[in-house]
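Please check the following for our workbook:

***
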Amino acid sequence: MNHYLDTNRANWNDRASAHATRVGGLGYDIQRYIDDPALLSDVARFDRERLGDIAGLRAVHLQCHIGTDTLSLARLGARVTGLDFSPVAVAEARALVRDASAGSGAGTDIRAGTVDFLESDVYDAASVLEPASFDLVYTGIGALCWLPRIDTWAQVVARLLKPGGRLFIREGHPILWTMDETESDDLHLRFSYFEQAEPLEWDDDSSYVATDRPLTATKTYEWNHGLGEIVTALLDAGLVLTMLVEHDSVPWEALPGQMVQRPDGEYALGARAGVAPLSYTIQAVKPA
């Protein structure tokens, strides 16, 4: 298992530096967050109403990558800790928050929120952070597919939440992860919908956003988790499901040649519009 983890970490170290470029139109185009102090990430903005008022909440953003969603939560008033297993991603996230705060004289203060970052594997989060101390555990899109066991993740979430606290996650739908993105003539279900012991192995020098160079650490390992497996894992961890919304769009062109971009930046199926869910939002609460 360490081989899978180390290989994925090398890939995400490589991606983090490419995604954090300040060249406009490449990577996450992060200069926008520095130039516009009110800007929210596409992921955070999509679920803004479902997320509700988070001002003053203590939040942890698991698998935070370079911190654009983390910064967005802080701009909504939360006190946020971003956690990621990539040291390069953590360094880039700190740099983003530092530069986004420059000129305000507030250090790392973003409006009413404060941001810090911690390097750790997500499975170790409840060991490096204070258990039962968070009002909100947040996870953005494209995170769960890197985890071999969804039940272990759910137990970590439950340990981090204080009584009455909640998990909020938007993620790519497991039906999407079964589709072969290299086939552009139609939807092709090729990969397992359900969690498997052995991962899918990929070797690709590109990323899901445009970059100014190919990746050099190209191998990755991924696991799918069925929606029922995810919900059951949360229930088994003692959480109460309070929201499950399936969406017909995702924030990137997941199936090239088969998607149309909407005015809000989301991508939806074109000719096959509405035939499959592409992402979902879940909220679950730890009983008081």
